[in-house]
Amino acid sequence: AEAVVLAGDVFDRDLPGQPEAARLAAALAECAVPVLVAPGTHDAWRAGGVWDRPWPANVTVFSEDRWTPVAVGEAAFYGLASRGRAREGGLFGGLPARVESARFHVGVAHASLLWADIAGNSTGSSSTTSPWATTTLCAWCGGRAGWSRPTRARPKG
């Protein structure tokens, strides 16, 4: 592999025990490739949280509420941290300029669709058990011609 991507909810809370974080840091340090982390809805980035600490040199933790590019070989990864709240502009708002030197473009985020860019949900409820509030990994790949975004299909059931 050229890179390892962790797209959120590595931990089930943003303040796991220090032994858990230390075990992950040791495992990631042993990776021979870059590791890119997009904090999730259960382990969102926040000051003093698990992702706001020193990580091995090969680990990049996306900490911003904006798409941030990181080049790895021929690929540009565009990461977005979950910050534990709705994102202004929706999930795909504010896509950055493409890294022109990259052959591949990959976006990585972990978000609740309820917090992302859906104003309502199928039941009108804000419950996290709603089909629209299920946690999902959202990613896109952009070709040379321009960005290609995923489409949302209404959940069955």
List the helices and strands and how they pair.
Blueprint: E1 4-6, H1 18-29, E2 35-37, E3 59-61, E4 68-72, E5 75-79, E6 104-112, E7 135-142
Parallel strand pairs: 1-2, 2-3, 5-6
Antiparallel strand pairs: 4-5, 6-7
General description of the model:
The chain is mainly β. It has one helix spanning 18-29, and strands at residues 4-6, 35-37, 59-61, 68-72, 75-79, 104-112, 135-142. Residues 115-155 have low confidence and may be disordered.
Give a short overview.
The chain has 157 residues and is mainly β. The chain is built from 1 helix and 7 strands.
How many strands, which pairing sense, and closed or not: the largest β-sheet? 4 strands, mixed
Shape: flat
Regarding quaternary structure, how should these chains be classified? single chain
Low-confidence stretches: 115-155
SS element count, helices: 1
The amount of helix comes to under 10%
Average pLDDT over all residues: 75
**What is the H/E string?**
EHEEEEEE
What is the CA–CA distance across the termini?
Answer: 37 Å
Strand order of the largest sheet: 4-5-6-7
For this entry, give a set of tags.
157 residues, 4-stranded mixed beta sheet, disordered C terminus, single chain, 8% helix, flat, 3-stranded parallel beta sheet, mainly beta
